[in-house]
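#struct-help
A.M.: can someone run this one for me? Single chain, 142 residues.
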Amino acid sequence: MADINQRKARTIIRKTMERAREMELRPISVVVLDAGGHVIAFEREDDSAPGRFGIAQGKAYGAVMLGMAGRAQMERAEQQAYFMAALNGVYGGQVVPVPGGLLVRDKKGAIIGAVGVTGDTSDNDAEVGLAGIAGAGLEGEA
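D.P.: on it. Structure tokens below:
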């Protein structure tokens, strides 16, 4: 399984931020993780809160480690809060189960990483993240 490389990660971030500016969102932060949950690249816009890295990373980390995008995680948390709480315990509290944690798949459907976007509403975070992933020529799942 191939991971997202540095060039693709930077393209995802740039395209995500471009879409956020088009939509006039609040300042966002974007992280790209490889398939093992390791940070490849991170960037936050001016005036983005300093704690946004942890949120972005938690959204992406949950997606890649569970193989489940943010929307599916949130639905699971709403249906079985105890299960998601237990999973978060397993992962040391690093999972943020809300939209804005996006799976990245290659053209064959294999998970090659994840993107975490934070700064605006979770739905807007997911929308701009999908645009960034598509802008890098990859498949995103919100």
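A.M.: thanks! Residues 6-22 form the longest helix (17 residues).
D.P.: also worth noting: The two ends are 21 Å apart (CA to CA).
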